[in-house]
Specification:
- By secondary structure, the protein is of the alpha+beta class.
- The chain has helices spanning 5-16, 34-49, 59-75, 82-101, 154-161, 186-190; strands spanning 23-27, 53-57, 107-108, 113-115, 120-122, 145-146, 200-203, 209-213, 227-229, 237-242, 247-251, 257-268, 275-281, 289-296, 299-309, 316-321, 324-331.
- It has 3 domains: 5-167, 3-Layer(aba) Sandwich (Rossmann fold); 196-251, Roll (SH3 type barrels), CATH 2.30.30.280; 256-331, Beta Barrel (Elongation Factor Tu (Ef-tu), domain 3).
- The two termini are 35 Å apart.
Length: 332
């Protein structure tokens, strides 16, 4: 339970369905006042529900598995996905272990996703679906997880919360931060650890210098602003990042087009063949694209049946069979 509306309603739905419920609040980072405020909400809701609320400090594990990975990835010119790392290692890793240690049979969260104990599926509310963020969790946890909001629409969740006076403080609250430890921009986080404003050269795909940039960590693949290209009349986009040279590679939109990618560190939550057809999402909030996947060891080659644009190294490619999540890997 985060103190937000989704996890609170999920807890209520489970209790009303006859489950014996206990809440767990995870402290994941050290933002001043953040946890005190949120855990106070959790304790208030838990007391009204008549359930126990645990305060679980996983900040040390989170720093190692998520925060440090986030900072290191940008330093290497990669585009990380900290939420996927958190779900894999923290929420359905360390928190799952904690739940087992206190005798819980099942773990539930407020994710908008469906699970039948064997497989994970997209939520009914496609605008809120979070299955992409579960692409690398351990399939061994599937028989023991529940997602009460998988068949709900967000607006209905908000309306449902209005039935309970003790949820009035959060029923109209703003959506939670996309990345919980980023208050404003990711650059503010990175600037605590390194100089993000080391200007450098922008080059074209042949390596020719064509302009300047204000520091390579300001950019991700597909970005089209914040750098200068000499004499450019057409929009230019970031095609790649070369941290070892402090360079960004820029070009026109058609140069972002990709038909083949490779992924590593593959994790599957479904049985698959060495070669198979599926749909692939190369980032959250994009539609999936049909492709052929060929696996060799812990790497895979993905050949798309239509072009995709703006593929960033370090992001996760999530693989689907219609609405069923198959797994995913890190784009290289």
């Amino acid at each position: 339970m985060s103190g937000g509306i989704d996890s609170s309603v999920a807890a209520i739905l489970l209790q009303e369905a006859g489950y014996e419920v206990e809440g767990v609040y995870m402290k994941l980072h050290e933002r001043d006042g953040y946890h005190e405020s949120n855990f106070a909400k959790v304790e208030h809701i838990a007391s009204k529900m008549g359930i126990k609320a645990h305060f679980l400090d996983l900040s040390e594990e989170f720093k190692k598995e998520v925060y440090d990975y986030f900072v290191s990835s940008y330093k290497q010119g990669l585009t990380p996905n900290p939420c996927i790392a958190c779900n894999k290692n923290i929420k359905f890793g360390k928190m799952f272990e904690f739940a087992k240690s206190v005798g819980a049979d099942l773990v539930a969260t407020g994710h908008y996703v469906k699970c039948d104990g064997v497989s994970i599926y997209e939520a009914d509310d496609k605008s809120k679906d979070q299955s992409y963020f579960l692409a690398q969790i351990d399939r061994a946890v599937l028989p023991n997880i529940l997602f009460p909001l998988g068949e709900w629409v967000k607006e209905d969740v908000k309306e449902y919360a209005k039935r309970y006076d003790f949820l009035s403080l959060i029923s109209s609250s703003a959506e939670s931060l996309e990345i919980c430890f980023v208050e404003n921009t990711y650059l503010e986080v990175l600037a605590k650890h390194m100089d993000v404003d080391v200007s450098g050269v922008a080059v074209d795909s042949s390596g020719k210098a064509v302009g300047t940039h204000k520091g390579y960590m300001h950019y991700t693949v597909g970005k089209r602003r914040g750098f200068f290209v000499n004499g450019a009349h057409d929009p230019h986009f970031v095609l790649d990042i070369k941290p070892e040279l402090n360079q960004i590679v820029v070009g026109k939109k058609e140069e972002l087009e990709v038909k083949t990618i490779e992924i590593k560190d593959i994790s599957f939550i479904a049985d698959i063949e060495d070669e198979f057809e599926c749909n692939v999402k190369v980032r959250y909030r994009t539609r999936s694209v049909p492709a052929t996947v060929s696996i060799k060891d812990d790497h895979a080659k993905i050949v798309f049946k239509e072009s995709v644009f703006g593929v960033a190294r370090g992001q996760i490619a999530a693989l689907y069979d219609d609405e069923k999540l198959l797994g995913g890997g890190v784009i290289v």
